[in-house]
Amino acid sequence: QVQLVESGGDSVQAGGSLRLSCVASGATASDYYLKWFRQAPGKEREGVATISARSIPTYAAFVKGRFTVSRDNAKNILYLQMDSLKPEDTGIYYCAAARDLTLNPRTVNTWGQGTQVTVSS
After folding, report:
1. In the structure, what pLDDT confidence band is assigned to residue 10 with cuts at 50, 70 and 90?
2. If 0-12 CB within 10 Å is exposed, 13-18 middle and 19+ buried, where does residue 85 land?
3. Where residue 1 falls among pLDDT bands split at 50, 70, 90?
């Protein structure tokens, strides 16, 4: 079973950028699709992006070119570069591992503990 630890969350102004990282350990991360989810206060957890072992990404529609997901299989690290941040991007961002490429939280095998992102207007 893979373990996941996120970092990089912070408070930024609208229009700013953040880079989230997620270190995978305990298993071969390349065996999994790695994903980012987020959860805003009072809302359900939603998928942001997923990336295959061959670094093929899939994004949620609301990303609209603002976010970039990448992974370093040699270092077992997943990244999420977030640009042009908006207040509605505020929430806890979770790293996840799964055996499929969907953004369905029900298929996730392992969750990280989350990192807080706050975007102020």
Report:
1. very high
2. buried
3. confident
More confident site: 72 or 30 = 72
Confidence band, pLDDT 50/70/90 cuts, at residue 31: confident
Residue written as token pair 């999994």: 32
Among the listed residues 75, 58, 69, the one whose alpha carbon sits nearest the alpha carbon of residue 93: 69
Residue-wise DSSP of the chain: --EEEEE---EEETT--EEEEEEEESS-GGGSEEEEEEE-TTS--EEEEEE-TT--EEE-GGGTTSEEEEEETTTTEEEEEE-S--GGG-EEEEEEEESS-S--GGGEEEE---EEEEEE-
Specify whether the backbone of 84 is left (phi greater than 0), alpha (psi in -120 to 50) or beta. Answer: left
Q: Which residues contact 98 (CB under 8 A, 6 or more apart)?
A: 32, 33, 35, 50, 107, 108, 109
